[in-house]
Amino acid sequence: MPYLTHLFVYIATYIILAIGLNLSIGFTGLLNLGHVAFLGIGAYTSALLTLAGVPFPLAFLAAGIFAALFAPLLMYLTKNVRGDYLALSTLGFGLVAHAVFLNWISLTHGPLGIPGIPRPDIFGFVVSSRIEFFLFTVTIAGIVLFIIWLLTSSRYGTLLGAIRDDELAVAMLGKNVMRLKIQSLAIAAFLAGIAGSLSAHYITYIDPTAYDIPEIIFIVSVVIVGGLASLRGTVVATILLVLLPEALRFVDLPSSVLGPSRQLLYAVFLLLILLYRPRGLFGTVELE
């Protein structure tokens, strides 16, 4: 039971993270590969603030807000690039953020990381046990899902989809495309920031290795497998991609074989999805 609870805490956290990325990539058409930078910014912000004595609710909100503040900067720096070039530019943003986490030793403690991060204290109630953290994280994920569903089902969501499909046509209708892109990326960054806060306070330790290339690959894989512009797909893909490699833990294999086998199973699953469901499990659009 504690093992399953641990896994579902991770699943709920990744759902929040992946929903934000799907909002920017799937619903708005922004090939953002720097999403993991917002995750790290949120984690470090929340950890440092709570260790400095700031109450968790304020640190939690600050994690999302501070991450979101980088969205206008990123959009401004990449305003003249599209498609693959945007993907590479945002990937560079993620790598720069990782370098900052690794080398700003006076603030982040560099490769040593930050230990002793306190568990969430919400107005006197400390979320200490795994089951309590599971319920807390699932509640946050449910609220996020509902809000993003309302957003994407509204006229505003239709406008974001129009930017993804034909940015020039939206501009010709007199809409401020850049502002809409910034808003979409800021919401995605906010969600990544609060996901970073949740993960930091659950593990009670963070270091730069958690915000590097492998994490980027996993989050993007969730969006691709679930399907672009599909909230249901994001939830299902997160559950599948977290639980699928874990199934091999119950197979009697030597440790030297178990690790590569998990990676192989993960790769085969992704390959099958790309071959037979190129739009993902529930996707309705293709990103060109």
Structural notes for this entry:
The strands form two sheets. Strands 1-4 form a two-stranded antiparallel sheet. Strands 2-3 form a two-stranded antiparallel sheet. It contains 13 helices and four strands. Helices cover 73% and strands 3% of the residues. Helix 4 packs across helix 10 and helix 12 runs antiparallel to helix 13. By secondary structure, it is mainly α.
Task: Describe the secondary structure blueprint for this structure.
Layout: H1 2-27, H2 35-51, H3 56-68, H4 70-77, H5 83-103, H6 105-108, E1 114-115, E2 121-122, E3 125-126, H7 130-153, H8 155-165, H9 167-172, H10 177-203, E4 205-206, H11 213-226, H12 231-246, H13 255-276
Antiparallel strand pairs: 1-4, 2-3
Main attributes?
single chain; 288 residues; mainly alpha; two-stranded antiparallel sheet; 13 helices; 4 strands; 73% helix; 3% strand; globular
Q: Overall mean pLDDT score?
A: 90
Element-by-element helix/strand order: HHHHHHEEEHHHHEHHH
Oligomer: single chain
Tally of individual helices: 13
Protein name: Branched-chain amino acid ABC transporter permease
Membrane topology: Multi-pass membrane protein
Main location: membrane
InterPro entries: ABC_transp_permease (IPR001851), LivM-like (IPR043428)
